[in-house]
Amino acid sequence: MTTCHSLMAIIEELKSDAQLIERQSVDRLAQLVHSASRVFVAGAGRSGFAARAFANRLMHLGYSVFFVGEPTTPSIRQGDLLVIGSGSGETASLVSMAKKAKAEGANIATLTIYPDHSIGKMASVSIRIPGVTKKSTEGSGKASSVQPSGSSFEQLSWLIYDSIIVDLKALSGQNDDQMYYRHANLE
Questions:
Q1: Which residues does the UniProt record annotate as the domain SIS (predicted)?
Q2: Which residues are catalytic?
């Protein structure tokens, strides 16, 4: 068997970056999700795909969750939580959502490369992910990547979201059968 060197390089990069994730921030986000009346999740582009997967798993756990932009998404209110995945922390549509959520009294959480940018400044909790993005280059904590710009951020976002799901599964006392019961059956 021949090893796929590109795959192993990506895994090593993610492993190295994962060691820089602050556990307290991840734990705080899990607590905010668990205590929120409803959870709203947002992200654009590939970060949005990871965020959608997070919303899907939250639904499997029985949380009241909505992906922002879907026709059935209600208005956000006090007691709700908005989770935003944004590498740059400056994506105009996501900054606008954060401002609206803040004005309505909702909590905000973000996964970002730049917690000191606009979305991070409004957030109750920011999970800083080392990353490389063309949208902003200063202070990312990472000079380069073996992957195209943004990929390591998006992949590590997905893994952080999944780690939060593991924690919430234990916190909520759910098991795989209960989660599977909520799985889509109109396929």
A1: 29-170
A2: 154
- How far is the CA of 14 from the CAs of 17, 101, 129, in angstroms? 5, 31, 10
As a three-state string, the secondary structure of the chain is CCCCHHHHHHHHHHHHHHCCCCHHHHHHHHHHHHHCCCEEEEECHHHHHHHHHHHHHHHHCCCCEEECCCCCCCCCCCCCEEEEECCCCCCHHHHHHHHHHHHCCCEEEEEECCCCCHHHHHCCEEEECCCCECCECCCCCCCCCCCCCCHHHHHHHHHHHHHHHHHHHHHHCCCHHHHHHCCCCCC
Domain membership of residue 125 (yes or no) is: yes
Q: How many domains is the chain built from? A: 1
Contacts of 20 (CB under 8 A, 6+ apart): 128, 130, 141
**pLDDT for 13-54, tens place per residue?**
999 999 999 999 999 999 999 999 999 999 999 999 999 999
At 86, which CATH number? 3.40.50.10490
